[in-house]
Structure formats: structure tokens, C-alpha cells
Amino acid sequence: MSPKINCIIIEDELPAAQLLELHIDRFEVLKLKGKFQSVQTAMSTIKEDNIDLIFLDINLPGKSGIDFASNLPPGISVIFTTAYAEFALQGFELDAVDYLIKPISFERFTRAFEKFLKLKSASGQQLVSQKDATSEPFIYLKSERMSVKVLVDDILYIEAKGNFLVVYTKSENIKTYLSISEIMERLPEGLFCRIHRSFLIALSKVSRYNSHSVNVGQAQLPIGRLYGESVRKAIWVK
Q1: Averaged in consecutive runs of 10 residues, what is the pLDDT profile of the chain (238 residues)?
Q2: Are 148 and 181 part of one and the same domain?
Q3: What's the pTM?
Q4: Helix/strand/coil (H/E/C) assignment for every residue in 42-99
């Protein structure tokens, strides 16, 4: 049995922390020891729980992630997770394992984690398999008299059309007779954002955005006037 890798998340934005936790949970070898909103609240866990890896935001209340990482003791690795691409050079100068730009896809997270394992390979750690695919978060949607299993990570966005929804995924579009409010109750909290009365998007699938619209996959979707502030909080940098 492979030894566990103890890790923590230091991230003050709840949706970003929840997404990281879902990614971490898909690796048997990773043991999440805690989630923290500032470096100050994480200190006791770092000292007491033999932390190997920290997923660390940069723009934090109080002490910044850059300042904190520069004073970590040897043996603790850092993967920076931030919305600020301009800090990448500083991150690598601190010998960070990797630098991930939000929203962080599972594929990009996996590459960063594999890089960490390669750097630690001298100690005998090896890459372990992800949990079985059946453990991936999913929901069932009733469509055309059938219940269809839909992996949460496959959902790009959801559009309300009259009295039904169209769920756009990586492989197909699914029509189901639910409201946006009803489907939001079934989806994991923090991974999706309502941007318009007719649109719900997967935050990790946003490729571009401005104050008026977001790009998800090949679609450009409008931001409704009443949803601008909640969208800004979910995907805009502070």
C-alpha cells in the first residue's frame, strides 16, 4: 500500500477550495488534512500533521502566499493556485512545483500532481491510480423516458428553454424537464454559477470572460444584468 501524501488547501474563495477538494479526492494517495482561508489559520496543522504538499493561493488576507512560501521549512512542496498569471515567475523562483491558473481543470491539476510525484520519486513514491471512475460525481437526468447518468465534470453549461433544460456536455446535449433551480440542488455546491436567468455554467470550463459574457466551450453566453455581481465573485479576480 502506497504511503499517504498529506496535503492542505489554503484558499479564501470557497468555490475554488471546493473544486480543489474534488480533484484531490480522486487520488487515493492524497490525504487532505484541512482547508484554510489564510496562512495564519493553517500554521498549527502544518506543524503537527507532517504536511507534504500545499495547494496555495497567492492573494490571501493578511500574509500573501508568495511571502508565506518563501519561509516554509524544507520538505514541504507548494503548488500555487491563483487567478493572477503575472505572479507565475515569482512562484517558480521559489521552486514551486507548479503554478495553476483558476479555474483549474482536473486535467491540469493531474499534470501538476504528476510533476510533484516525479520530483519526489527519489524517496520511492510512485504515481497511483485515480479512484475508480464510478466514484466520479454524477447525477441522473430523466430524458425521453430514460434516466441518463451524467458525470458532473462532463457538463459544460445548462440552458433553460421554456419548461425544460438542455444540458450541454462534452459528448452530447440532454433535454430534461427540470428548472435551473431544481438542477442546481442536485449539483455539487461551488462548481457552477448562474450567469443569466437562462444559463448555468461550469466554472472550470470557462475559457474567456468579460463584464458582458463568458465563453464556455464553443459557446459565448450572456451575463444577465441581475447576475453580474455573483458572476464577478465567482470567476473574476479580486
Answers
A1: 82 92 91 92 88 91 82 86 62 70 88 85 43 59 86 94 94 93 81 93 91 92 91 69
A2: yes
A3: 0.53
A4: HHHHHHHCCCCEEEECCCCCCCCHHHHHCCCCCCCEEEEEECCHHHHHHHHHCCCCEE
